[in-house]
Structure formats: structure tokens, C-alpha cells
Specification:
Helix content: 10-25%
Largest sheet: 9 strands, antiparallel
Mean pLDDT: 76
Shape: globular
Number of helices: 9
Low-confidence stretches: 1-60, 243-263, 288-293
Strand content: 15-25%
Oligomer: single chain
Structural class: alpha+beta
Radius of gyration: 24 Å
Number of strands: 16
Distance between the termini: 19 Å
Strand order of the largest sheet: 1-12-13-4-14-15-16-3-2
Amino acid sequence: GGGGGGGPCSESRALVSPTAKRGVLSTSQPAPSSPTLFDDDVTGDKPAADWPGRQSHVTFSQPITTEKQADVTVQRYPELPSDVSLRSKVRIVSQSDLSHLRPVHAVFDPSSSGSSSIVGVCHYYQHPHFPWCKLFPRRNARVAQSEDLAFLTDYVKSSLFVAWNSSLQNVYDLLRQGALTRFYLCSSNLTMMFENDNSAHRVCIVPTTRGFRDTLFKQGIQFSMPHLNSLSNADKLALLSSDPTSDVSEGRVNIGLTDDGDEEEEDASCQEWLAGLGAAEVKMSSSQKSSSSDATHRYDYTKQSLITIPHQSVHTLFNFLLNFKSLMPSSGELAGLPPTIVCDRPFLGASLQQLSSKVVSYRTTVTAADPVPRVQNALEVFGGPILPSVYTAIVGRAAASLPNFTCLSSLAEGSDSFRPPHSTHPPLSAFAFDRGQFVVESS
């Protein structure tokens, strides 16, 4: 777990490498039925004193200082850089008392905004919702018993899809009207983020496949692949060489590195072959050529397969999704259930849900570098999707009342790919706060 106390560098370093095992000494309240969390993987929006603290668009603050320490770069920010990733777990660790952030007898009131407690801000709206079936995260989802989804007859599936369509239309209309900043759509095979960026809407989808991209292309939906476009030729070769099924080892790389002349020669040879068969010359537009020669399928299911839909194509995509039955998995643990819609504002058909939270204490492990065991306090938030606005509010309340702390979180549903490829900071799964500055380490 992250070690608290001391300077920001020591906190940040301990936080980035959470290897210490700890035993729980005491808890400020009975532990909920959910797992204790953060045994394996553990993790910024601008801190805000008041809820909801949303931003109309995403901005990335520049570091005020950048330090090089061996193989580690330490950046200090006056404000926590914005981050639109979904999270499944958040832990704030400090040697200071954290009971004011999570009072034992706090009453959940989503309308409260002036309290220093995080209880009132730890909520979200979701559709669909079944108390006995976990619908987030959707990737690698597991159902406790096969009987849990026995109610999904063909009639029920059809009714669920109709209700889901109504909810999606309503939350999309709220986005267009500026009533909310963003919402997420999570299915078993992809995650979408609809965002209102200063009245210019956009959609990010990850991961994607060539088949899905071809379908969008045929529907006239424009898109770009920012992560793939940002890769240098050397990076593309390195990525493909890690795949034993790629053609790199045989010298047949076709990932946009070939010259236009090679493509023209190939097209000419194809035309000659068709002419030899007595077929008429086939003329292809440049867009058709780019689609037919697309070799980006080698990046399917990876971060680089993220696509961004610009403002002019968002409404076309929305109409396409309303009738895109492939969004509902036909097999697997959650077959027949529509994607999960998650938002920080109420919308038609949504259920208000509360995140679980607790404060625990544990003792650090004795090491050669730190021979004296110390008692650390940790605030843990889990049990559902932690939206960027909720994450902002949690961190903001901690920064307003604590001199220093470390923060760890688990990014969910591949949403860390929504970060721009040329962002000035790494994915914010871990950072330290020390005397008004946010410290982010990257290797």
C-alpha cells in the first residue's frame, strides 16, 4: 500500500509501487459485504469544493515544475489534471485522520453539497439495474448463478431493449441540451463516451475492430484513430513485432508504411488481371481504396483501436446505435442484456445508486529502508462506476482538509484510452498530494 507522510517524492514513489502487505488493525465502521479491495491493481479531474464540480469541457493543466530523477520524471501541478476515465476503486492514504471524510453514521443525501463528507457525492445513475446482477464492469462480467438471468425470455429481452432505447434517447437529448457533460455506455465488447465539449459533441469508442469500423464507414459515419495516428513508424513496427501472428518477421508489413507507388502498382496489376478475364476496368475512389487496403485490423481490441466520432457524425452514430442489435451480446454471462448507461445526472429509467465507502487503518511492513512500522489510514470507495465528477469531488474534499496524501485508483473498461495521445501526464492511476501540489510520477 502507499506509504504516507514525508515529502511528496517519497509518497509518490511508494504509491507508484504499492508492494507492501498490510493487516487491518481497526475499522471506523463495519466492513460492507463487498471485497476489501486493492489487493492487485490500484488509482484526476480538477478538485472542487462543492458538488457536483463538473467541467463543461476537458482541459489539461500544465505542470509548474518537471524533475528528472534517474529513470523517473516527477511533475508537479497546481491543480489535478482533468481525467475522463471511469474507475472501479479509489483509495486515499494518509497518516492524518480520515474519519471526517467518511463519518460512521453519515446519512446518504445526494442533494448535499456543503459537507466535507464524501458520502453525499458517492453516487451515480445507471440503466438498466438489477439488484441481483452486477452490470459494471461489463467486461469479463460474471453472474453468481445461472438462474440469475433465467427470467430473460424473448419477450423480456424485447421489453428491455425498448426501455433501453427510451433511456438512451433521453440521456442523449440531455447531453445535446447541455444539461450534462458526458455519459458512458458500457457493453461486454466496447465502451463509449458521449461528451459535450463546449456545445461540440464527440464520441469515443474503445476497443474497436475492423468489421465495426467498416460498418460505420458504410453508414457514412466519420471517425479518426488518434492513438494510431500518433504512433511513429518505429512504434508501429515495435507493436506489430510483439504479435507472433503479424507479418513483421517475414518482411510483409502493411500498416501504412508502404509508399503510394507500391499501392498504385498493386492496383495496376489487379486491373490487368481483371482485363485478362474480360472484366471491365474497376474504378475505385480514394476513400474506397483506403478502406479496402486498411491494415489497421492488426490493432483490433487494443488501445490504438480507439476511434473518435466528430460533432457532425455524432447524431448519425446515435441513430445507428438505436437499431444496432450487436450491442446486446448474444452469448456469454450477460447475454441478452443491453449495455449499461452510466451518468452523474438523473435521466429517464435510471436508478440512483450509492457507492460503498469505508475508512480502515493498517500497519506498514518493516523494510530495510523503513525499519519502523507506521499506522496508515485509508479511505476506500468502491462498489460501482466512479465517474470523473465523483472522483473530482472525492479528491477535492481530501485536498481541502489534508496536508498530504496519496491516491490510488483502478481504471475501468479501457476508459484510460480516452486520454488524448499527446497528453502531458500519464494515466492518473496514482499520484501524491503535498501542500497544495499534485505530484505525478512517470517512467
